[in-house]
């Protein structure tokens, strides 16, 4: 019995009022004998006020958010009931607003009841944890301190009015606020409420307006040379926001580059076209029996009979459904893009794998390349590299190169340190170390990288078709534009089979080699 | 845990709210979101008239840009799609035959006129001024970007009937040995056109009026042979449309309609009446298009301002 009292004393000291209740509860928690449905009644009634008095700010946040959500739902009920009354002459609006108002009423009740129950269920469990922390260090809040209510009050005053105001008002849309800004600029008087609504409860306000940038064009002077001509905007043209201004500047930059440095980009385009037409003439130019036999033989040699059968079946699918030429067209695009990815990605990967500076510089760039939506760079690609396959190859390279770099770097970093040391001990110079030790050991990872590159290139073919790359991607887009679902599915399966064919062969070859 | 619960409730409420919104919106007019500027402008004016003077509710369904799907929705009449803002005839004859003449589930207004021609930049006009000039292999070579021996021309987007129409025309003019179509979305083509105009590169393309590119860029239409009896014999919906059709003369001016689901006559009679009486003037449509496409104004502002300043015209549509 004395033991029991010894355990109880610090709890009573910690809890202050209702010490006995907390002593009972905490001891049950320590013995894991607390009933499954144990609720703290004071917490159930007092919610975040109780939590503030007890000094548990985690519970305070939970309780406050629960009550806030319930309250906001009630405010919405008020807002929609008002709206229904204001639009009494329009039956469909009344019906809609009354529906919403009912939904939010139910929502408020459910959130309030379930939230409070959850809070009361959590209360003693979390409070016991606070007690354990208090036993270790007495800095932790303890006892029942009414002055803590001040903080609770302060938080409520900061949050509640504006949240409630927001949920009883229909927020102004961005356009209304832009109009209002213009009206203010012209010296019109705007009601304080309207200004406040635009500042606080709508879209983040436009803090500053910028003079519209000059229109830029590139006419020829008397000698036939291109010049930059800036035309100031019309007098009454409204000012623009930061977004529009910057976007216009980017457009002007692209325009300037294409007009004055077009020859440079034309050179790249010509190089890509040349490389592609060489590859295309192999794939498309070779008659189908030859290509098919060669592909089958390669699959058999590299990956064995079963993979060869799969490749054969896929090729027959493409041939039977009339996709042969288009599939070969797509394949040459993928091969061209993959070659560039490997040629550029491998040295980059070695740099990233061997130098920490390389890693810091390249990794964020790779992240951007992989995540930026491809449509964002498709249109600039048209400006620089025109329409057709060259910009499609570049767009594909941007999307498909990151795994090559990453997996090469990973493979190099996975080479064991003692292997490296052994090579150095035998007098290997850095070049020998890289070419004869590190790269061969990293080869499985590099092969996986190449595999990824091919897969990701194939997944770009549909997007590439939007800038005129043709091939299987075009079959898919055309079918979908004409709502011919069946044809779209057939072509889609064809693309998937192309991808799986290459994937199986490369993977099997890689596994066999090891 | 708190977060998870809030998320759960939030989703549940928004689902319920969305459902009730769907059920209550029977009178709401759903306007298709076709991609070219003219269709967008007309859509926003229709929306402004319905939301403003008619005091009802219309929404433009974002991304509802496929003509066939809009037409199928209008036919169903379940309020999923109600207005086809810019129905080009004869380009969209299939929709006309199936729903307006056939099922009679779709109504239309008095059309306005549009033209469709092949264009080159005006700095090319001294070398190329008619389709006759296109038969010159040297001219075709100037337009050959990919070096395969054929010049490229933009014939429209996949899924537009005009895309096939121009392929038929090039074949009938005997140009298909020297020229090949580029089939691209309008936005992609406009990016290409902008660069070509800036860099003074040759470019041959289909375009139509009313549109803003005529005001933004200096371009010249090509002459085509005058129309004669039987010069146009096209069936673009056949499997072998290219072989089965022939078209060796200028395109007739297109008639451009606003088409709407006849279910609106019961769901929202004033709107159905307005859509059947709406009469557009090409000059006015062009004015909207310029403001939206060239001056980059917000289409909603353009539409609302126009409606506010032209109430007499609007009243003649809705009375």
Blueprint of the fold:
The complex is a heterodimer of chains A (514) and B (319).
Chain A: H1 2-15, H2 19-30, H3 41-54, H4 57-86, H5 91-136, H6 148-168, H7 174-185, H8 192-200, E1 215-217, E2 229-231, H9 242-260, H10 262-283, H11 288-320, H12 324-354, H13 356-371, H14 374-385, H15 389-400, H16 402-413, H17 417-425, H18 430-459, H19 461-465, H20 471-481, H21 485-513
Antiparallel strand pairs in A: 1-2
Chain B: H1 2-24, E1 29-31, H2 37-51, E2 58-60, H3 67-76, E3 83-89, H4 93-103, E4 106-108, E5 112-121, H5 137-142, E6 151-156, H6 161-172, E7 179-183, H7 186-199, E8 204-209, H8 213-216, E9 219-221, E10 232-233, H9 241-244, E11 246-247, E12 254-261, H10 264-267, H11 269-277, H12 282-294, H13 299-309, H14 311-318
Parallel strand pairs in B: 1-2, 6-7, 6-8
Antiparallel strand pairs in B: 3-12, 4-12, 5-8, 5-9, 5-12, 10-11
Helix pairs in contact in B: 2-12, 2-13
What does this structure look like?
The complex is a heterodimer of chains A (514) and B (319). By secondary structure, chain A is an all-alpha fold. Chain A has three domains: 2-168, no CATH class; 215-260, no CATH class; 266-513, MetI-like (MetI-like fold). Helices cover 78% and strands 1% of the residues of chain A. By secondary structure, chain B is α/β, with parallel strands linked by helices. Helix content of chain B is 45%, strand content 18%. Chain B is built from 14 helices and twelve strands. In chain B, strands 3, 4, 5, 6, 7, 8, 9 and 12 form an eight-stranded mixed sheet that branches. In chain B, strands 1-2 form a two-stranded parallel sheet. In chain B, α2 (37-51) crosses α12 and α2 packs across α13 (299-309). Residues 1-24 of chain B have low confidence and may be disordered. The chains are: A mainly alpha (514), B alpha/beta (319).
């Amino acid at each position: 019995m004395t033991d029991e009292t010894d355990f109880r004393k610090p709890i009573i000291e910690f809890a202050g009022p209702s010490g006995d209740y907390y002593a009972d509860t905490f001891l049950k928690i320590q013995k894991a004998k607390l009933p499954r449905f144990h609720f703290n009644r004071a917490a159930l009634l007092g919610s975040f006020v109780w939590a503030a008095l007890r000094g548990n700010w985690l519970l305070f946040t939970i309780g406050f958010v629960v009550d806030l959500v319930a309250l906001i739902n009630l405010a919405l009920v008020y807002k929609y009931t008002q709206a229904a009354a204001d639009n009494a002459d329009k039956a469909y609006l009344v019906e809609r607003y009354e529906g919403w108002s009912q939904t939010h009423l139910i929502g408020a009740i459910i959130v309030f009841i379930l939230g409070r129950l959850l809070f009361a269920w959590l209360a003693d469990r979390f409070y016991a944890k606070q007690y354990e922390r208090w036993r270790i260090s007495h800095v932790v809040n303890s006892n029942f301190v009414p002055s803590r209510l001040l903080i609770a009050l302060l938080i409520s005053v900061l949050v509640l009015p504006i949240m409630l105001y927001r949920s009883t008002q229909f927020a102004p849309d961005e356009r209304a606020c832009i109009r209002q800004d213009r009206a203010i600029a012209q010296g019109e008087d705007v009601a304080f409420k309207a200004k406040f609504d635009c500042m606080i409860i709508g879209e983040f306000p436009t803090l500053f307006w910028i003079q519209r940038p000059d229109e830029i064009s590139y006419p020829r002077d008397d000698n036939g040379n291109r010049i930059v001509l800036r035309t100031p905007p019309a007098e009454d043209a409204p000012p623009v926001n930061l977004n529009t201004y910057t976007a216009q500047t980017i457009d002007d930059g692209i325009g300037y580059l294409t007009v004055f440095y077009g020859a440079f980009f034309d050179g790249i385009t010509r190089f890509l076209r040349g490389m592609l037409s060489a590859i295309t003439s192999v794939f498309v130019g070779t008659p189908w029996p030859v290509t098919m036999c060669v592909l089958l033989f390669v699959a058999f040699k590299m990956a064995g009979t079963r993979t060869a059968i799969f490749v054969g079946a896929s090729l027959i699918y493409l041939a039977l459904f009339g996709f042969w030429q288009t599939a070969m067209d797509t394949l040459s695009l993928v091969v061209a893009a993959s070659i560039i990815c490997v040629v550029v990605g491998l040295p980059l990967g070695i740099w990233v794998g061997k130098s920490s500076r390389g890693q810091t510089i390249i990794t964020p760039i790779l992240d951007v390349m992989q995540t930026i939506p491809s449509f964002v760079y498709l249109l600039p690609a048209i400006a620089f590299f025109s329409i057709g396959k060259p910009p499609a190859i570049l767009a594909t390279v941007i999307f498909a190169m990151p795994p090559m770099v990453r997996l090469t770097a990973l493979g190099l970093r996975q080479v064991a340190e003692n292997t490296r040391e052994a090579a150095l001990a035998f007098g290997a110079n850095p070049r020998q170390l890289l070419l004869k030790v590190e790269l061969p050991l990293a080869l499985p990872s590099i092969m996986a990288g190449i595999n990824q590159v091919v897969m990701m290139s194939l997944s770009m073919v549909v997007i590439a078709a939007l800038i005129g790359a043709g091939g299987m991607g075009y079959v898919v887009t055309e079918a979908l534009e004409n709502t011919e679902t069946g044809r779209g599915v057939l072509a889609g399966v064809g693309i998937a089979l192309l991808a799986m064919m290459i994937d199986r062969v490369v993977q099997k070859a890689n596994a066999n080699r090891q | 845990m708190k977060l998870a619960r809030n998320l759960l409730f939030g989703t549940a409420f928004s689902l319920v709210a969305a459902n009730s919104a769907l059920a209550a919106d029977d009178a709401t007019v759903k306007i298709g979101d076709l991609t070219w500027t003219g269709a967008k402008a007309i859509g926003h004016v229709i929306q402004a008239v319905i939301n403003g003077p008619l005091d009802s509710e219309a929404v433009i369904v974002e991304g509802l840009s496929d003509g066939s799907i809009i037409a199928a929705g209008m036919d169903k009449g379940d309020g999923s799609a109600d207005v086809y803002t810019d129905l080009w005839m004869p380009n969209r004859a299939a929709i006309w035959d199936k729903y307006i003449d056939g099922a009679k589930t779709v109504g239309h207004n008095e059309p306005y006129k549009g033209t469709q021609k092949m264009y080159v930049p005006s700095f090319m006009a001294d070398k190329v001024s008619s389709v006759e000039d296109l038969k010159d292999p040297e001219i075709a070579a100037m337009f050959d970007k990919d070096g395969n021996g054929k010049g490229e021309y933009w014939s429209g987007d996949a899924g537009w009937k005009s895309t096939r129409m121009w392929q038929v025309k090039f074949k009938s003019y005997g140009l298909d040995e020297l020229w090949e179509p580029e089939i691209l979305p309008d936005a992609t083509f406009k990016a290409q056109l902008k660069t070509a105009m800036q860099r003074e590169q040759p470019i041959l393309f289909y375009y139509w009026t009313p549109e803003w590119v005529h005001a933004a860029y200096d371009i010249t239409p090509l002459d085509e042979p005058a129309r004669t009896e039987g010069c146009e014999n096209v069936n673009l919906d056949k499997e072998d449309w290219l072989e089965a059709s022939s078209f060796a003369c200028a395109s007739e001016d297109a008639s451009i309609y606003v088409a709407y689901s006849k279910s609106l006559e019961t769901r929202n009679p004033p709107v159905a009446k307005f859509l059947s009486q709406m009469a557009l003037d090409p000059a006015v449509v062009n004015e909207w298009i310029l403001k939206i496409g060239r001056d980059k104004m917000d289409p909603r502002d353009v539409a609302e301002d126009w409606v506010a300043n032209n109430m007499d015209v609007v009243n003649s549509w809705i009375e």
